[in-house]
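Recap for those who missed Tuesday's class. We walked through two folding examples back to back. For each one, the amino acid string is listed first and its predicted structure tokens come directly after. Nothing is annotated here on purpose, so try labeling regions yourself before you check the end of the notes.
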Amino acid sequence: MAIDLSWKAFIQQQQQQDYFTALQAFVEAERAAGKVIFPPKEQVLSAFEYTPLSEVRVVLIGQDPYHGPDQAHGLCFSVQKGVKVPPSLANMYKELASDIEGFTIPEHGNLLTWAQQGVLMLNTVLTVEQGKAHSHAKSGWEIFTQNVLLHLNEQPQPIIFVLWGAHAKKKGKVITAEHHQIVSGPHPSPLSAYRGFFGCKHFSHVNQLLKQRGSATIDWQV
């Protein structure tokens, strides 16, 4: 797949900026040095392939990609089929099972069907070295994803931004347009899920907000 046309002009404009040139050079040098970088090169911008700009209805913000083999594929919280479901996603599934009637906990962690329904699944940092969490933080990705959020803030369609945890809440401060909505709470990670993520009912709340504006709800079952 390729970047959806609706995102193309924005991404090309970012790629022409100095920060992005330096970022690209850094990631390419890391790969060239024989380091294992996730996700694979062709999946780094997957979020922009599966969710066209004009169809973004919900935004989920993660931190950086999973750093274990075969996990990350460019969508936050999501892992490839056949890979063990990570703890944060397992907690999201638990919350979905108690929040959404009929939801059954899947045996895989691939959330591609969410992306295809208009859920932009955006990590703040889009690459990572194997086994080294946050290894590509402050390399330039934060500028790119901040610009993505500023661009989303300017979109005419109302968007629901789901901000879990302090990191996402801080990142979401650029969302200022009145027609957008913010849903926020604790992160689903095992460290904080018991502080209010469990029982937050954010998934049904998002669907309620979509319904109120006459938009189709998200089928959270994967």
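Example two. Treat it independently of the first, because the proteins are unrelated.
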Amino acid sequence: MAGHSKWANIQHRKGRQDEKRGKVWTRIIREITVAARQGGADVTANPRLRLAIDKAKAANMPADRIKYNVDKASGNLEGVNYEEIRYEGYGIGGAAIIVDTMTDNRVRTVAEVRHAFSKYGGNLGTEGSVAFQFKHCGQLVFAPGTSEDKVMEVALESGAEDVVSDDDGAIEVITSPTDFEAVKNALEAAGLVADMAEVTMRAENTIAIAGEDALRMQKLLDVIEDLDDVQNVYHNAELAE
């Protein structure tokens, strides 16, 4: 199945995350906190916590800091209570944007998200206004040059829903959220390590944005991503270089 050209956008996003490592750690700590609080500290029985810890390790977070935050969230230490809130809206050119937050102050968070949208050319929508344009799924992306036949064979045998060949040579493996970890483990056991692997909101269709509009859209996304309470930002824009 042919897909869109996503490799440049993925590499761009990874680069921006590397530039904001401190912010990435903060987001991961919040994810660990919520995962451990909801599902307990036993990683063998808590898939969400396992994924959060994998993200922490990939971001070079020290093991003692990971353990501290798991203990803190699971009740062994006092901590802040976070709630998860999703916001939906539109960016430049009608691009769809989903903003996932974790916050201890709902009033502050919605005010900051609304301000970012309105100041930088977007519009905050109502619940459900754009979510239908995305699929909640596991996504593993392999660099151009990876053997598509090998990826397809291992992925489909281990329970993946689809393997997508993008226009730029990247290969995407799509799974259900519940099968993501099993598929990821099977691929890694076969020597296939994805450049990006996460449970995400994947856009069903994308909107190409170029020129000044692309710069404006990137600015809007940057401002939203920099908000303290924001965990993840998903969108369906393909931004031209």
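Answers for example two:
Residues 21-39 form the longest helix (19 residues).
The CA atoms of residues 50 and 150 lie 26 Å apart.
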